[in-house]
Amino acid sequence: RYTRIALTQKLRRIIDEGIGYGLALEGISAADVARSMANKA
After folding, report:
1. 20 near 11, Cβ under 8 Å?
2. CA distance 24 to 13
3. pLDDT category, 19, cuts 50, 70, 90?
4. Runs of H (alpha helix) within 1-41
């Protein structure tokens, strides 16, 4: 139950530090591309 909370807190801390900012942006854009491709199919 608390695994997701622990993981998201760690992820937020990484993004807040600015280390994973580019990775987070890349992940968001990749998910967006996948979603738009799924909608077209």
Report:
1. yes
2. 12
3. low
4. 3-17, 21-40
Q: So where are the chain's domains?
A: 3-40
Q: What is d(CA 4, CA 40) in angstroms, rounded to the nearest whole number?
A: 31
Q: Distance between CA 11 and CA 14 in Å, rounded?
A: 5
Residue 21, C-beta contacts closer than 8 angstroms, at least 6 positions apart:
15
Among residues 28, 20, 30, the alpha carbon closest in space to that of 7 is found at 20
Query: Model confidence over 4-17: pLDDT tens digits?
Result: 888 888 878 876 77
List b or e across 1-39, with b for residues whose CB sees 16 or more CB atoms inside 10 angstroms: eeeeeeeeeeeeeeeeeeebeeeeeeeeeeeeeeeeeee
